Amino acid sequence: MEYSEAERMVRAALSKKRYAHTCNVKEAAVKLAQRYGADPEKAALAALLHDAVKERPKAELLQILRGNAIIAGNAAESPAPVWHGPCAAIMAKTQWGVDDPEVLDAIRYHTTGRAGMTKMDKILYLADMISAERDYPEVGELRALAGENLDAAVLQAVRYNIRWMEECGKTIDPLSREALEDLERSAQAQKNTEV
Ligand SMILES: [Fe+2]
Ligand SMILES: [Fe+2]
Predict the structure, then answer these.
(1) Total number of domains constituting the chain
(2) How remote is the CA of residue 81 from the centroid of ligand 1, in Å?
């Protein structure tokens, strides 16, 4: 699928508000890609598709996961709010003609993160949290950090997310805890090399 066609599809699939969010995420992702030496076109495509199935009914998302068990792995066991990531990756691969694993993985893990996040995973995860319409109290601090250090910003973003989910009593996907542990380990290793 051509980029412009994907854009039309996403615009038609989403509410105005979520499409505006998608455009803001795309803008943030492209900036981060330029800043940190990743491919801006891949970042734009991953951002465009990241929430493309978020407004579909849960039953339909579950059906997509069950119907594509090999790609989905155990994603159906994750909390329902994260299903739209793996489902969008499945649709991108099987229906929308995207075969770049960097793009597909970034879409898949944009809500949870994972251990061993790639640069593109980090860019989309962060772009989703600092997009222009976000207005939670720590967003200014996170935007500033995102301009300075990608790894430090993603670590902070995962921390915020987990803390927020704990405060709301939401179920935390094990992938998010694995992402946090892995990013903390890397940050510590980085510190040790600097001493
Ligand atoms: Fe999302
Ligand atoms: Fe999003």
Answers:
(1) 1
(2) 8
